[in-house]
Amino acid sequence: MLQLFFNTFKLFTWDLATNLGYWPIWWYGPGLVDFFHFFTNNIKSAWHRQALDILLKNWFKPMYAQTDWQGRILSFFFRTLIIAWRFMFFIFWAFVLSLAMILWIMVIPIALFMLIRLLLFT
To answer: Can you give the pTM of this predicted structure?
Structure first.
């Protein structure tokens, strides 16, 4: 029974040590690559969710087939407002994702700094 306990303890501590040692390598290697793919896919998805490509393609076309000059002016004005509004949402979301990417990169150095500060100055 005692041998089982020591083998289990040894396996657990070895597994814990190797996982803690591999974690920073994973964080800045495959984890960062996965996060970058998430970032780019989410930016593309946000662009398509806001339908900015369709709006930009149809920016100068009249809405509801109103081909007179008043319809064209109103269509241009309202499409410009819609594009500006949706583009602001897109830029805001890209900014949030960029902050998340910076946080992903900076979390380990900040955690190490805080740990060293806690251990040395307390």
So the answer is: 0.73
